[in-house]
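call fold(seq) -> tokens
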Amino acid sequence: MQLNELVRSWLPEGGTVVDRTGSEHPWPPLMKVAETVPSAAADDVLTAVAVASSPAAAGDLPAVLADAVPGEVVLLLLPWPAAELPLGPVIQALVAAGLQATEAHPLADTEWGVAVICRRVDDEVGELHAYLDRSRSPGPLTGRTLLRLADEHVLEGLVRRTQELQLQATKQALEEAKAALAAVTAERDALRDKTTPPAASATEGEESESSDDLG
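ret:
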């Protein structure tokens, strides 16, 4: 997904992106950009929090997320490819900050690999449904246990779908390689048949020997 496409899906025209960590990303036109969060959470405000790529990136998450206020919607930008997302540290940091993940997408146009939309809910977890089955609820869970389940549901789903897509791409590439090899082999065999002289027949050999005898 394109990052600005995701932002437009969450903010109306004239909405505000709070670039809390100074990502320097070129946000969509007609969006306001601020460095600090308004005093109260609002539906037309989205706070972007970016985690830089480094060996300590997973350890930086709790501090990066700690400033979220109740009701605030956070766009968390993570440096890892979706298939390599460190689920344990990311989910733990979200739960510790009271953040419920509602969407997670791989990114195709930025230095970040994954975008997670989450909201500061503390223990007031929003409605949760099983993946692709809105009739199933998670049962009588509450508080941080339910919050962890909600975050796992969104992030593990992202990783699983990404890995499935990678597996499909690998299988397709293998089939294409097999087809290309078969085509090259057929072309080589056809060329070999054209350049190899035909073997002399037994009759021609006998005629040659007769000529030699007469000589």
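Confidence is low (pLDDT under 50) at residues 130-134.
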